[in-house]
Amino acid sequence: MSHMPALEATTLPADAVEVGRIADAWGIKGWFKVMAFSSDPEALFAAKEWFLLPAEKGAKQFTGTVLLPVKQARVHSDTIVATSPVVEDRNTAEALRGARVFVAREHFPKTDDGEYYWVDLLGLSVVNREGVALGVVRDLLSTGPQTVLILGYEQDGKEQERLIPFVDAYVDSVDLPGKTIVADWQADY
Questions:
Q1: What's the rounded mean pLDDT across residues 31-47?
Q2: Is the CATH code 1.10.238.10 the one for domain 8-107?
């Protein structure tokens, strides 16, 4: 028995950003848990519609992109829970398990000066004040009070990693249009 909710097929917006995935059903009333990729999941709360893609692994309950209208999303202890008008019970919520959640960029709340979304930093080139290339942002890591940039670079033909705390003491500037971060950091740190 498939309990897949009646979700409208749609196309993924060009500016869609993957923000998390649906982890599991929560409770019996059709709520579901969401695992957010960022420590700052405001886009999940701000968007009234999420775009879902099927899970990369495991059973596919749907194909293509579907639109999930969101009635409410909120933090519950250390997880995010959400509810949709089209997901009425636990079985239906379970059918969404593993689905990848995307939000259109236009639905992201505006950031303050000096604040950036993680997705915007991925792929940026990092150079130091002397113009030496330090690597490309591959990932970010939240270590509680601060975020750390994980840079990938090549040395002697091998892929290496470099960690730089994303704090004012080390990061001079972030140029999103220019896709560059300038850091006060030496290649041999």
A1: 84
A2: no
**Could you give the residue range(s) of every CATH 2.30.30.240 domain in the chain?**
118-183
Question: pLDDT class for 62, splitting at 50, 70, 90?
Answer: confident
- Do residues 44 and 35 make contact, with C-beta atoms less than 8 angstroms apart? no
**79-83 and 100-104 as β-strands: parallel, antiparallel, unpaired?**
unpaired
Sheet of strand 133-142, all strands in order from the earlier edge strand to the far edge: 158-165, 147-155, 133-142, 125-128, 180-183, 171-175
- In terms of Cβ atoms closer than 10 Å to its own Cβ (0-12, 13-18, 19+), residue 137 is buried
CB of 5 closer than 8 Å to CB of 84: yes
Give the tens place of pLDDT for each residue, 110-130.
777 777 888 789 899 999 999
What is the tens place of the pLDDT at every residue in 77-91? 878 999 999 999 999
Instruction: Tell whether pTM > 0.90.
Output: no
Cβ atoms of 97 and 24 closer than 8 Å? yes
Q: Where exactly does CATH 2.40.30.60 map onto the chain?
A: 8-107
CATH code for 118-183? 2.30.30.240
Smallest CA-to-CA distance from 171 within 140, 13, 103 is with: 140
